[in-house]
Amino acid sequence: MAIDHSKFLARFVDEAREHCAKITEGLLSLESAPETPGTMDAVFRSAHTIKGSARMMQLTGVGELAHGMEDVLDAARSGRIGLTREVSDLLFQGVDALSALLDKVASGDKPEAPGALRDELRRIAAADAAPAPPASPETARGASPPDLQAAGPGVQPELPGPACQTPPEVAAEPTAQAAPRGEQHPGSKRAGEYIRVNAAKLDDLIRLMGEVISEHGLFRKDIQQLRDFERATRRHLDAVAGLLSKEGDGPLELKRVLERGDALRQAMRLRMAAISESVMMQEHLIAELQEASLTLRMLPLATVFEPLRRTVRDMAREFGKEIDFVITGGETELDRKIAERIGDSLMHMIRNALDHGIESASERVQAGKPSRGTISLAAFHDSGGVSLELSDDGRGLCTEKIREKALAKRLYDAETLERMSRAEINNLIFVPGFSTSPIITDISGRGVGMDVVRKNIVDELKGTVTIETQEGAGSTFLLRLPLNLAVFPLFFVTAGGTTCALPATFVVELLRVARDAIIEIVDKRAIRLREQIVPVEELASILKLPGDTSPQSKEAVIVVVRDGKNMLGLLVDEILGGEEMVVKPLPSHLQGLRIVIGGTIGEGGRIINVLHVPELLRLARDLTDSGRGAEARERERGASILVVDDSINTREIEKSILEAYGYLVEVAEDGQEALEKTRGKLFDLVITDVEMPRLDGFSLTERLRADQSYRNVPIIIVTSREKEEDKKRGILVGADAYIIKQAFDQSNLLDTVRSLIG
Question: Which CATH number is 28's domain given?
């Protein structure tokens, strides 16, 4: 009977990807510890399993490529060839090619193996003179391993899982089909019973669970209102009874009405007690439901961390650096929805650590450090959330360099920067377009990486990012994330008569203090919180809510919030309490509203805004930051730019692009004319070509840097010279950016200009 291979396709792709990951992990282990027993055998078995499974699925291309890798690994484990850097790199190429083939298989194709890579694998495997060990009859015929053969006549074979199968909620693709239990191969070894569940269905379950929790919170408030109603009824009946006792027994009919009312009140009280017990039981069951449901979507962070080993290896070679990459806490679990969205952020931070943090081997030795740098990634549970700690032992952040860059980009004026703490200045690396790199090229230095980190971790995942750094000793980035995105713990407050919510992950503590405990420091108010001075601001003022914000009582109600190391006390009217609630995203036409991250449903179907704490801190700072306001008004008038190029076409293209976006542009035909123009006017930015008559772009840049007025004015070189030595010369003479004309386009130029002057 013919086998319907499509039935097993999703499972084959999942398990082949798992084996690719095992091959990668094993090769990385062999590079750092070649003598580790059993590692080579495990890598070989994974390649062998992919080959056999692919042949059963009649996927010739995948099978051929896996077979080539298997032969190389067999030659290496038998000692016929060494696992040299060349061989290791070739095997990694094989893993990458296999992954690409599997992506095509998942989309329904039957791809061919890349011929050049397949032939190179065969050449390396056959490079030794010793004959290969004789193949078994099954292998010689191209059959799959025994554990992959049919269970018997008339029984359709099923692809068994690996010996230690990853739970399906980790490996399943969104379209994975459930595996019928009756088809499980009796010889396959499993740690437990598993079925594959469509990921979208699981997400729906978690979403519904969140809705149940939110509705139960509202139901609990309804019960409280009924309790209040029962108490009010009792007080009313007691009052009526008291009045009657003063006037005598009263009419018999009225006494009977009161007795019936009292009986109803007693019945209501008993019913309320029964409902309260039921609510308590429901709370217990819902809590268990929440825990069980969320557990279904939890992943060990090793699924995110382990693939980074290969990335770090490749990037370290790209930058010419030797790195030890240490991972701990991979068993820590996190919601899949969060885990799958932190990979990009970790990649950006690791790349920054390799590119800008870790010094070259010679620099490290001169500084008294080991020649090999270390990057550490750790995960651990922390106060109801999960924290990730990424550390390096490199040169650390230079606060003074960040301050100078912020001044050059006109983010703040010198007076404002002087007032800012080191932590506040270091946090400027998260500003869009901010970079302390000495040069902007086509692939780095645009300052988009850390902006992405803050957007992903803080804006989208409602987490926090904290920086610890010491110049010359390294940096640590601490990311704190919620356990899940299904429900959020929120604190509800009122300000200016309006109810709003604050994510509990940003709340440090809730305070009631005497108003005379609020002190005045320069132009700000603050409170002393143990060893710290914490600024305070009226939440209603930050939100520009109407109404009187003057003190109404002798006590102030304060919610202390934090974003990284920056803390702020929010003065509110009242704290209503905390609840776990579903937070609905903003509609598309309100996505740009940074102060609000979403909404939740309150009593009576009322929508309550959930506020974005990092934006609250920024707005609070701007309330008293007149310096930045002046700089913003200056930018609105349009920055002035000098474009220098001997090609009239190039000059006019650049001029039209920049003027279309509000910049004031002047042009010069060569470096000498540009030099003359700069003597009579201070431009905000200079864009120059290199090859020009009279005075070239390098010489122009060098002369401008010698002029005190232009020492900090950004200079962009736009040229067709793409050699590395030309880029290095651009850095040497003082350029801030280097754009190759072949890669030039409108967005490229505008992004660079905005990166430098806003």
Answer: 1.20.120.160
* DSSP per-residue letters across 184-244: --TT---SS------HHHHHHHHHHHHHHHHHHHHHHHHHHHHHHHHHHHHHHHHHHHHHH
Cα 604 from Cα 592, distance rounded (Å): 28
Query: Which burial class, exposed, middle or buried, applies to 15 when counting CB atoms under 10 A from its CB (0-12, 13-18, 19+)?
Result: buried
At 227-275, the pLDDT tens digits run 777 777 777 777 777 766 665 555 666 667 677 777 777 777 787 777 7
Residue 555 located in a structural domain: yes
Host domain of residue 124: 5-152+159-169
Residue in 197, 56, 214 with CA at minimum distance from that of residue 138: 56
**Same domain, yes or no, for 131 and 10?**
yes
- Which residues make beta-bridge pairs with 666? 642
CATH number at residue 718: 3.40.50.2300
Measured CA distances, 336 to 203, 277, 341 (Å): 10, 35, 8
Angle, in degrees to the nearest 10, between helices 9-32 and 302-318: 50
Given a cut of 90, whether residue 68 has pLDDT beyond it is yes
Neighbour count for residue 573 (Cβ, 10 Å): 20
| DSSP secondary structure letter of residue 320 | T
- So what's the pLDDT on residue 61? 92
Residue 434, domain member (yes or no):
yes
* CA 321 distance to own-chain centroid: 26
Q: Are residues 397 and 308 in the same domain?
A: yes
Helix (H, G, I), strand (E, B) or coil at 363: helix
| Residue 548 sits in the same domain as residue 682 | no
Task: Tell me which of 278, 296, 314 is where a domain ends.
Answer: 296
Residue with tokens 């679990």: 333
Last residue of a domain, one of 482, 507, 542: 482
Q: What is the pTM of this model?
A: 0.59
Residue 632 placed within a domain: no
Residues 289, 409 within the same domain: no
Taking the C-alpha atoms of residue 570 and residue 621, their distance in angstroms, rounded to an integer, is 12
- How many other CB atoms sit within 10 Å of the CB of residue 388? 27
Q: Using CA atoms, how far apart are residues 4 and 157, in angstroms rounded to an integer?
A: 10
Query: Which residues are CB-contacts of 701 (< 8 A; sequence separation ≥ 6)?
Result: 688, 715, 717, 730, 733, 734, 735
Reading the block at residue 569, the tokens are 């006390």
Q: What is the pLDDT of residues 89-107, one digit of tens each?
A: 999 999 999 999 999 999 8
Hey, is 378 helix, strand or coil? Answer: strand
Q: What mean pLDDT do residues 373-379 have? A: 95
Q: How far is it, in rounded angstroms, from Cα 484 to Cα 503? A: 13
Q: Is residue 247 located within the same domain as residue 321?
A: no
By CB atoms closer than 10 A (0-12, 13-18, 19+), residue 146 is exposed
Number of domains in the chain: 5
* Residues of the chain by 3-state class (helix, strand, coil), percent to 5: 50, 20, 30
Does one domain contain both 681 and 645?
Answer: yes
Q: Where would I find the H helices in 580-695?
A: 613-623, 626-636, 648-660, 671-680
